Amino acid sequence: MHKRSAVIVILVTFLSVIGLLPESGSQEASVQMVEDFSSFKDGSFPEGWKSRGGDEGDVYRVKRNREAYLEAHAVNSAVAIAKKFSYTLNEYPYLQWQWRAVKLPQGGDERFKETGDSAAAIYVIFQGILRPNTIKYVWSASLPLGTTTQSPYNSKTKIVVLRNQDSPLGEWIEETVDVCADYKRLFGKEPEQVQAIGIMSDSDNTGSTAIAHYKRIAVSTHK
């Protein structure tokens, strides 16, 4: 298994085994907050998130400017973080978050190992210990909007391009994706239980820099 694929697999396996992170909240709410980063100190790494691939403190830090957000500043690095968050996709089909890309990894193209860097990415990681099915929503440096492909590191990770080099940099953009519909389309079957939500901004393959911000990640029963 390639190092990049192993980062996510090992990370999710670690989250499953230790069992220390909280499960999702009441199934009665129409919206469940995965993370809004508001409870963490400025400059800290968010508690409850686990990393693999390097020192998370070198890449991810909570920042505050009216509202808390997570900053990812990846310099020639590939560090993924994830939070255990178990829920049923048929009950909460939509994933919502806000993000902004500040700097794109130069030459990034998620289709190839040699260039497989993303300015920003949100992972939905499904049940399973070894090589779980995963959907990766990306802010790409080069691919057309709406592109769907699979990771060159792991055929069970499907990539969906939501934003790219033509999207405005430095501006918050709110996303809502129908993960349930995407799972059926990409994997050709009914969705499995979600076990974790991940984040990754990386730049190691292109030897460049990626900077992005994330906030207000939630699951919802509606758009």
Order of helices and strands: HEEEEEEEEEEEHEE
Question: Approximately what portion of the residues adopt beta-strand conformation?
Answer: 35-45%
Distance between the termini: 37 Å
Work out the radius of gyration. 16 Å
Overall geometric form = globular
Largest sheet: 7 strands, mixed
Low-confidence stretches: 17-27
- Main β-sheet, spatial strand arrangement: 2-5-12-7-8-10-9
Count every beta strand, where a strand is a DSSP E run of 2 or more residues. Answer: 13
**Alpha-beta content class:** mainly beta
Binned, the helix content reads 10-25%
- How many helical elements? 2
Q: How confident overall, as mean pLDDT?
A: 90
Walk me through what this model shows.
This protein has 223 residues and is mainly beta. The protein has helices at residues 3-18, 179-187; strands at residues 31-35, 50-52, 60-65, 67-75, 78-87, 94-103, 120-126, 134-139, 148-150, 157-163, 173-178, 194-202, 209-220. The strands form two sheets. Strands 2-5-12-7-8-10-9 form a seven-stranded mixed beta sheet. Strands 1, 3, 4, 6, 11 and 13 form a six-stranded antiparallel beta sheet that branches.
What does the secondary structure layout of this molecule look like, with pairings?
Elements (H helix, E strand, L loop, with lengths): L2 H16 L12 E5 L14 E3 L7 E6 L1 E9 L2 E10 L6 E10 L16 E7 L7 E6 L8 E3 L6 E7 L9 E6 H9 L6 E9 L6 E12 L3
Parallel strand pairs: 8-10
Antiparallel strand pairs: 1-13, 2-5, 3-4, 4-13, 5-12, 6-11, 6-13, 7-8, 7-12, 9-10
